[in-house]
Specification:
CATH architecture of the largest domain in chain B: 3-Layer(aba) Sandwich
Number of strands of chain B: 16
Strand order of the largest sheet of chain A: 2-1-3-4-6-5-8-7
Bound molecules: thiamine diphosphate, iron/sulfur cluster, magnesium ion
CATH class of the largest domain in chain B: Alpha Beta
Strand content of chain B: 15-25%
Oligomer: heterodimer
Shape of chain A: globular
Structural class of chain A: alpha/beta
Radius of gyration of chain B: 21 Å
Helix content of chain B: 25-40%
Order of helices and strands of chain B: EHEHEHEHEEHEHEHEEHHEEHEEHEHEH
Radius of gyration of chain A: 18 Å
Number of domains of chain B: 2
Largest interface: A-B, 43 and 45 residues
Helix content of chain A: 25-40%
CATH superfamily of the largest domain in chain B: Thiamin diphosphate (ThDP)-binding fold, Pyr/PP domains
Structural class of chain B: alpha/beta
Number of strands of chain A: 8
Largest sheet of chain B: 8 strands, mixed
Number of helices of chain B: 13
Number of helices of chain A: 9
Shape of chain B: globular
Strand content of chain A: 15-25%
Distance between the termini of chain A: 58 Å
Chain lengths: 272, 383
Amino acid sequence: MAFEYEKYIRKGTLPHIWCPGCGHGIVMKSLLRAIDGLKLDKNDIAVVSGIGCASRLPGYLDMNTLHTTHGRALAFATGIRLANPKLKVIVVSGDGDAAAIGGNHLIHAARRNIEITLIVFNNSIYGMTGGQVAPTTPLGAIATTMPYGNIDPPFDLVKLVEGAGATFVARTTSYHTAQCEQLFKQAIMHKGFSVVDVIDACPVQYGRRNKPREAPDMMQIQKDNSIPVQLAQKKKPEELVGKIITGIFVKKELPSYTDTYYNTIIPRAQAK
Amino acid sequence: MEKKALLISGNESCVEGALYAGVQFYAGYPITPSSEIAEGLAKKLPKYGGVMIQMEDEIASMGAIIGASLTGKKSMTATSGPGFSLKQENLGFASFNEIPCVIVNVMRGGPSTGAPTGPSQGDVMQARWGTHGDHPIVALAPNSIPEIFTETVRAFNISEKYRIPVVLLLDEIISHMREKITFPEKGELEVIDRMKPTVPPDQYKPFDVSNSPLPLVPPMAAYGTGYRFHVTGLNHRTDGFPTNNGELIEKELHRIMGKLDLYKKDMFRTEAYMLEDAEIGIVAFGSSARAAKYAVNELRKQGIKAGMLRYITLWPFEGAAIEMLAQKVKFIVVPELNMGQLILEVERAAQGRTKVYGVNRVNIEIIHPHDIMEKVKELSHGI
Ligand SMILES: Cc1ncc(C[n+]2csc(CCOP(=O)(O)OP(=O)(O)O)c2C)c(N)n1
Ligand code: SF4
Ligand SMILES: [Mg+2]
């Protein structure tokens, strides 16, 4: 039986704003299948975003949804989660949203290990504003604000959030829909801050100025260049240049913020 | 049993007022001279089962209280000038989406880092127009420790009732000064909670006012209660979804701004001191009004009939009282710890009916009664 996306899509909100060939919609589908597979109640899910193409996603979902300001989704989400620990809170962000303007909130959410799942729609570019360089754009790539080639080294988001203390960290691509779904499931059920870095494609603002240009070829690259983390560990660094390392990088149990606040701080304060 | 009077600071009074009003969520970032509010709530909020979190900056604090408010919790933050500047973008988000929240700004000397422990009233205009675009906002400016308590309660009430962010403008003087206060008993002051929707979830539109018992104010559902709704900072329709329809955009903006006009009377509060027979009007607020009151008393001893109109609600600014005052006094003096901000509104309301003069300081000293008296006497001679 075909999957019933209608169960989760708000009536009257489609068609979405994404360009033909954009990877964002494919990742959204994986997210919906993950939510469905987990049998979560729509009333108990909050989906929060910042600003950008990816950040338009919450509007399409029939859940508690919040489209905030550029880069600040994790801050709003922290308030939601702490004020109502019953809610599963999922943040969807573009790479610019999460790692540039929102970088401070990103490292602090990771450090705090607050029970939020962050999905980064990592298309290596500022899509919505027209192809400006992002903190994820590869060196040498062309962006409208790097017309002679990018000289600003990119973040490895996995390493960044791992270093900051995230307790579940994974990477996949928009091509790997089954892996996306599986990783989203695990991330959403993880107790603590979980991040899935999804390597995504923006044919219109990135592809247009770089190689390959077309959406199908960009997907092909995601497929061909991916290598599971277990295999990558056995390779030399020079063998991994240009590769997309996928899978789960971090998965550990540590005290999470909301849990600790309600179960330790409140009783401690009330005992005094 | 007689109630016990306590000697506490303005910031402590703000903490107690917030707890009385039922604050459930606080997010903030330390900054002088506001930090005692965060510290007080860090100690006390968890005792009531509430949440206090120190965020990574003021932008995050503002975002967090909006998120918490969307789950139905009474939320607040406190800061001072530099932090108030950082909060502005998200404050605009709260204003546009009619999300109840209280923002305390303990004003300090500016611009920029300015004077962290220096007194100032330099954020009058920022409180009204700090974020971009036309937007509704309310600002209250108490001038004593007991009044900080009652105005904090009122800030929550106005915010919850009308779904407008309320800025509580304190200043370094009244925040750190200590005064006697007797806390009101439970029930003595009104405490208002936001209006919840009465329609079933499938009929709920977050910005629809057609069935609201309170004109122009939409009932507010909470995330996680079965009402699944969308909130965006983009121009939106009454169902919360983005729109580019100019007519709808204008209609919604007029509605949210219209709340200020429609409920101005309920939001408005002033204190009239010796105004009945006044020949000279002093218009003041916050700590400067304390000096103004003293000056009125002294001037009267010297045979000069001065009176004071004190604004407790700064925004929305109600000019009617000034209009009346301007018709009967020889001139109006506006003392404020800035280079002349409130005076612009006073002049506008006076409409040239009388002359309006400022008494100003930005030398991180308070305005002395003497400053006001000198100005009044100097101007009186000229008449
Ligand atoms: C404070 C602020 N600064 C800048 C912008 C303009 N802006 C909108 S989206 C965007 C970048 C989006 O890029 P990304 O987060 O990677 O999302 P994508 O569009 O690629 O999905 C920028 C800079 C804004 N809306 N707000
Ligand atoms: S500009 Fe790029 S990221 Fe935005 S919708 Fe189009 S393809 Fe997707
Ligand atoms: Mg991007």
